[in-house]
Fold:
Amino acid sequence: MMDFVWENAGLVAIAVSISVVLAVLGGLATEVGPWYENLRFPSWRPPNWLFGPVWTTIYVLVVSAAVIAYKHAPDESARAWLIGLFALNGVLNVLWSPLFFKLRRPDWALVEIVPYWLSIAALLHHIAGISTLAGELFSPYLLWVTFAGYLNWRMVELNKPFETHWPLGRS
Structure:
């Protein structure tokens, strides 16, 4: 495996850099403060400290799957689809956090999670068609966002209705 990484160091560096940018953007939009802590949560919600390690693991797996799929893509068309699907997924990934945390609209984030989830499913389908291993590495991403979507839905149900306050500094 290390030979594969070293032989593809440029590709790995690009994929890691993009994932770090996405993670930082999502992290900057995530504010776990009084507004969030005062929401009602289902009893099975994971502790806040767990989200960072889970997302880090997901990003490592996604980067690994992306590099393997890109390297093993049969042609430039398959690579172009891969890049396009990842670009769409990256935008949808980053969009969820400001909707939920900055705008304080878990209901809007729940609506947004549908195309986000579909972008992951499309990526999984495309990646698995290129490489079984890449598909297996990518699968936890779909599982985690499915779980996160269910958690988001339960939080909306437990806390609705939501309204946007301008400026957002108001509680």
